[in-house]
Amino acid sequence: MKKNKPYKIKYPNQPVWSCFAKFLHLVFKRPEIINTAGELPTNAIYVANHSAMAGPVVYNLYFPVPHAPWGAYPMLGGYKSRFRYLRDVYFIQKRGMNKAFASFLATFEACFSIWIYKGMHVIPSFPDGRLLKTLRISLDHIENNRAVMVFPEHSETGYHETLTGFSAGFVVLAERYKKTTRARHTHIPHLLPQGIKQNGSRQTAYIGRI
Q1: Taking Cα atoms as reference points, which of 159, 48, 60 lies closest to residue 116?
Q2: Is 63 exposed, middle or buried (0-12, 13-18, 19+ CB in 10 A)?
Q3: What letters, b where the CB count within 10 A reaches 16 and e where it falls short, cover 8-45?
Q4: CA-CA distance, 196 to 121, in Å (whole number)?
Q5: pLDDT for 35
Q6: Which of 46, 47, 32, 85 is nearest to 163 (CA)?
Q7: At what angle do helices 15-27 and 55-62 cross, to 10 degrees?
Q8: How many CB atoms within 10 Å of residue 136?
Q9: Please, what are the averages of pLDDT over each run of 10 residues along the chain (210 residues)?
Q10: Do residues 176 and 41 lie in contact, with contact meaning Cβ atoms separated by under 8 Å?
Q11: Does residue 17 contact residue 116 with C-beta atoms inside 8 Å?
Q12: 188 - beta bridge partners?
């Protein structure tokens, strides 16, 4: 019987994200990274705090290990899906904006956000039975030596200094990985200060420390 060959994932450069990333390097300063975890593996799950909207972007720019982050699945859908998520969930529910201003911002951001998400290789995170798809894609990345970064904090009411709770999806991912590969797997916490400053003082990011 032939063994199934590992699924090879390609990571092409996304021109829109590449150009945007150059601009973001000017907006967000490189944080001071304090690593207490030792050598950082590529086939690992990195558990991080979201640190407001900019957190995943800063991770992508400066985190020392190439990774694919989990992200809201509507942001990887069509324009209407992205617009509704940005307006109703991100701007109104999490940011507390009024509907008119939220609609204005979402109209423009929904146009280009898909290319940013694709450029960052975001994995769609589903809250229902489709989580199995999230796990499958995540395992494919890990098997291709690209780490997976998850943001398990509850953020229904925004991103808080004191975390209000966690989702257990990353635990399911770790158990699935261990079961399918029978390999010892590594969970490495990574922490950025809440509310990353733009053009402000340099921040400190901790790896392997909560």
Answers
A1: 60
A2: buried
A3: eeeeeebeebeebbeebeeebbebeeeeebeebbebbb
A4: 22
A5: 84
A6: 47
A7: 100
A8: 12
A9: 53 81 88 82 82 77 90 94 95 91 96 91 89 88 88 63 60 72 56 46 69
A10: no
A11: yes
A12: 46
